[in-house]
Design a protein that fits this description.
This protein is α/β, with parallel strands linked by helices. Helix content is about 45%, strand content about 15%. It has two domains: about 70 residues, no CATH class; about 180 residues, P-loop containing nucleotide triphosphate hydrolases (Rossmann fold). The protein has twelve helices and seven strands. A five-stranded parallel sheet has the order 4-5-6-3-7, sandwiched between helices. Strands 1-2 form a two-stranded antiparallel ribbon. Helix 10 links the parallel strand 5 and strand 6. The termini are far apart. The structure holds zinc ion (ZN). The site of zinc ion has 5 residues, from loops.
């Protein structure tokens, strides 16, 4: 081998390659596309003295050849990026499995099932209950756990996002882009699904998103709603049927009473 021909080991080459690739990619495509890339934001959100925030550590061997390996801080950086890209960055700080209180058997079951959902290949988790029953807490804790495990995730507050999407009749490209995100993201958390009046447009939108997710493998969908499964089925059999089939054993009823008056609970 000629000197200087391969001054770096393959790992270094991979790192530099993915850095270069990230610089070429527009924002929208880097948000959800996997955990192996090194975006500039990965390097800005943590202070690491080991690599001086370069993301890699180098050493020079006895032949003067430079070797590099990825720094340990990169996993943490990816996790932070995942959370920041999810829309849940403020909520994950507040809601975890650790601080989900279980004063009743019902709460215990919900927590147990939620943890189980993060560990096995079940595709859908549904929690039904009134406002104040801790739905958001348990769903956010699931999201937190999944993101720590490397899953990319998107948070969708149904009422707000559905209204925006339904108003996008004249912006086909933007509409398509946003719908595709919701369809393709590995984990989608729909908060307060079908809250308020459910119109035909809501039914169509839900079908567009959920039917594709239903047909794809390795997707997880987390749904919190005030509407019972019976009511969802009544509104639309196809959507209700798909949800209940994929969530078999993971459709849970949150304790009905406003068991504690805590303003942050939803
Ligand atoms: Zn580092």
């Amino acid at each position: 081998m000629e000197e200087n021909q391969h001054p770096l080991n393959p790992y270094m080459a991979k790192i530099l390659n993915s850095l270069a690739q990230n610089q070429r990619q527009p924002d929208s495509s880097t948000t959800y596309n996997g955990s192996s890339t090194l975006a500039a934001c990965d390097l800005a959100n943590l202070d690491c003295r080991v690599c001086n925030n370069t993301g890699y550590v180098t050493r020079t061997d006895e032949n003067g050849c430079q070797w590099a390996r990825e720094c340990e801080c990169m996993n943490q950086r990816r996790s932070i990026r995942r959370i920041n890209g999810s829309g849940l960055q403020d909520m994950v700080k507040r809601y975890s499995f650790e601080n989900y209180e279980t004063p009743t058997e019902k709460h215990k079951l919900i927590k147990e099932k939620a943890i189980q959902f993060t560990r096995i290949p079940v595709e859908c988790f549904v929690i039904v209950g009134r406002s104040g029953s801790g739905k958001t807490h348990i769903c956010t804790a699931i999201c937190n756990e999944l993101m720590s495990g490397g899953w990319n995730l998107k948070y969708m507050m149904w009422r707000t996002e559905a209204a925006e999407l339904k108003a996008m009749v004249n912006e086909r490209e933007e509409y398509k882009r946003r719908i595709n995100q919701l369809r393709n993201v590995p984990v989608l958390y729909i908060d307060d699904f079908w809250k308020g009046t459910v119109t035909d447009a809501d039914i169509n939108l839900a079908f567009t998103i959920l039917n594709d997710r239903y047909n794809m493998k390795n997707k997880k969908t987390i749904i919190s709603t005030e509407m019972s499964m019976e009511k969802i089925l009544e509104k639309d059999e196809a959507i209700g049927g798909r949800i209940s089939e994929r969530a078999k054993g993971f459709v849970l009823q949150a304790p009905d009473e406003n068991w504690r008056l805590k303003d942050r609970y939803d």
